[in-house]
Structures are given as C-alpha cells and as structure tokens.
Amino acid sequence: MATALASDLTTLTLGAPLALDSGKQLANVELAYETYGELNADKSNAILIFHALTGDQFVAKTHPLTGKPGWWDRMVGPGKPIDTARYHVICANVIGSCLGSTGPASAAQDGEPYGMRFPVITIRDMVRAQVGLLDALGIERLHAVVGGSMGGMQALSFAANFPGRTERVLAIATTARHSAQNIAFHEVGRQAIMADPDWEGGDYYARGKGPEKGLAVARMAAHITYLSEQGLTDKFGRQLQDRDAKSFGFDADFQVESYLRYQGLAFTDRFDANSYLYITRAMDYFDLAEEHGGLLADAFREASDTRFCVVSFDTDWLYPTSESRNVVHALNAVAAPVSFVELSAPFGHDSFLLECPALDRVVKGFLG
C-alpha cells in the first residue's frame, strides 16, 4: 500500500460541498496542488496542467515518495517549453487520487477511510473541483489549460463545461471518449485488484497492507498499452536475462518480463489501489458528446472563441490519431480556431512524457 505523504503538502479545502455528476455531494474536499513561477499582477499568465491517470501535482518538483524528478520536469521550468520564468503554472492532484487530494483513503465524516464508500466520480467532477481551486486563488481566466492522456480529457472537459475560463487548450494524446478496448483493458486491471485477497472489499487501510499484487498486475497490463511494439522491440526484443541459459520456468527469463514486473512493484509504493479503481472508472465513463446531447460539436459550441491545439502520435495505439481527428472535426464544425498535428515518435502513448523535440516546439509555439 502506498506510503503516507508528508503533512506539509500545499492543500486547499473547498469552501462548499462539491456537487457530483452522480447527484451526490462531497463535503470538505481537499485539493493538493503545486505552483511554479510567479503570478503576474492581473493574473493573466496562469497555466493549469492536468495530470494523467497515475500522475500527480509534482509536475516539475522532486517527488516526495520516489525521490525522482517531476513527471514533466523536461517540459516545465525556466526556459523550457512551458516557461516558468514567464508563466505561473498550477497542477493539482485530482479528486479520487491519493497524493493529498480527497479520495478513497481520506477520512469520511465518521473518521474512517472512505474505501468503497467514496462516491463515484467523473472527469467532469475532477475538473469542477479544480475550477473551485481557481476560484479560491482568484484566477478568473487562464492563459491555457494543458494535459496529456487523462489530462487531455480534463482539458477538453474544462473547455466544454467552463467556456470563457481559458484562452487556449492544449490536448495531447487524448480522446473525447473511451473505446470498448480502452474499457476492456481497464477492467482487466480492476479485476486483478479486486481478486487479490488483500483487497478485502476495499477496507484494507487499517491493516497497513493493500492488494499490492493485484495493483502491480493492473499496472503491468496498463503499462503495455502506454508503449509501442516498435519501442518494446527496440528496447528489449527477445533478449533473455541470462543469455547462456533459460530457466524454463516462471521466473523473469526475458528482459521485458523483468521490466514489467519492476514497473508493477514500484507503482505499489506510491499509489492506492482503490484510487486506481475509481479513476479508471471515471475515465471509462467519460463521453464528452454524451454529456452534451450526443453531438461532440455541441460540447464546444460555447467555446468557439478559445484557441485549441490537438496533438497525437503515430505510434499511440491507446488513443490513436483517429481519436484526435474526431475532436478536431467537432471543433471545425463550430468554427473554433484549432491546430492539429500528428507527431512521429517511437514511444507509443507515453511519447508526450518522453524526449520529443517536435512536441517541445509545438507546446512552446502554441503557448507563446
């Protein structure tokens, strides 16, 4: 089970209960967030970055649990594409997560962790909470919202549901709704967690040990979807751990097996299994067209004066370029100003997180 974070996180408690799409309300919502760069006098230089499924607010700061650099450290900082010498960057941990914002591990009104009593949440609920954060910070209109993967879903949802609150939207490697295949991969991961005897119906917090094996398998399965066949072949091929012999058993004979097992086990040190269940379900529920009467173009009708940039990668089979084109076509239908580019990179869906100079140029140019 993920280790508890230090108590010195930057957090804000929303002043009113958060209304959820489920019809329920979530009281005393805490949002943990980080900021980078100075906010100017008229508060016009703020950029809100939305993180992906397993991300957090530590976008450009050493992670307090892993000791590793922030998940987008290569993109955010002084002189970098998202230049903190010029912009005030905000990144908040989404509700439902486990890095300081209110989620299943948080205390409910009875003082005990919510566990599976936590209400069902949606991508729009996550965005609604972060709009509450902006309101508390006194930021009425953003210079831009930026996000990749689930972060891109939030960026699109922000533009659709809170028109006029941002000048620009940069959505990278994302989609306006999950496909049946996306949902299927998530369900494999959820079933792995819930089949672990240590899950105990989600009430594992008092034991100090969660369904680590199930969560590790869920992470392994998901991680495969973030990569590309070319990337896996180039990095691992069919290389054995020991080229001189095969164990002919169930140890990690192949290098790719060892890599996936490491990814799975390392993940359990920083993430909560129940949060994984809730957030993947929120992603599966996401359907921006359905939220607006069934027509995707209608989602953006009130945001036609906002500038959009949509980016996809040619090796991303999780959210392929066709998904980005669907968003672009909807924006074209309402005459919203939109730029679209498909970038070539060998890393699959994770390309937006890795070294990709072409993406750096796009981000810098669009924000500037």
TrEMBL record:
<comment type="pathway">
    <text>Amino-acid biosynthesis; L-methionine biosynthesis via de novo pathway; O-acetyl-L-homoserine from L-homoserine: step 1/1.</text>
</comment>
<feature type="domain" description="AB hydrolase-1">
    <location>
        <begin position="46"/>
        <end position="353"/>
    </location>
</feature>
<protein>
    <recommendedName>
        <fullName>Homoserine O-acetyltransferase</fullName>
        <ecNumber>2.3.1.31</ecNumber>
    </recommendedName>
</protein>
<dbReference type="InterPro" id="IPR000073">
    <property type="entry name" value="AB_hydrolase_1"/>
</dbReference>
<feature type="active site" description="Nucleophile">
    <location>
        <position position="149"/>
    </location>
</feature>
<feature type="binding site">
    <location>
        <position position="219"/>
    </location>
    <ligand>
        <name>substrate</name>
    </ligand>
</feature>
<keyword id="KW-0028">Amino-acid biosynthesis</keyword>
<feature type="binding site">
    <location>
        <position position="350"/>
    </location>
    <ligand>
        <name>substrate</name>
    </ligand>
</feature>
<comment type="function">
    <text>Transfers an acetyl group from acetyl-CoA to L-homoserine, forming acetyl-L-homoserine.</text>
</comment>
<feature type="active site">
    <location>
        <position position="349"/>
    </location>
</feature>
<keyword id="KW-0486">Methionine biosynthesis</keyword>
<dbReference type="GO" id="GO:0009092">
    <property type="term" value="P:homoserine metabolic process"/>
</dbReference>
<dbReference type="Pfam" id="PF00561">
    <property type="entry name" value="Abhydrolase_1"/>
</dbReference>
<feature type="active site">
    <location>
        <position position="316"/>
    </location>
</feature>
<dbReference type="InterPro" id="IPR029058">
    <property type="entry name" value="AB_hydrolase_fold"/>
</dbReference>
<keyword id="KW-0963">Cytoplasm</keyword>
<keyword id="KW-0808">Transferase</keyword>
<comment type="subunit">
    <text>Homodimer.</text>
</comment>
<dbReference type="GO" id="GO:0004414">
    <property type="term" value="F:homoserine O-acetyltransferase activity"/>
</dbReference>
<dbReference type="GO" id="GO:0009086">
    <property type="term" value="P:methionine biosynthetic process"/>
</dbReference>
<keyword id="KW-0012">Acyltransferase</keyword>
<dbReference type="InterPro" id="IPR008220">
    <property type="entry name" value="HAT_MetX-like"/>
</dbReference>
<dbReference type="GO" id="GO:0005737">
    <property type="term" value="C:cytoplasm"/>
</dbReference>
<comment type="similarity">
    <text>Belongs to the AB hydrolase superfamily. MetX family.</text>
</comment>
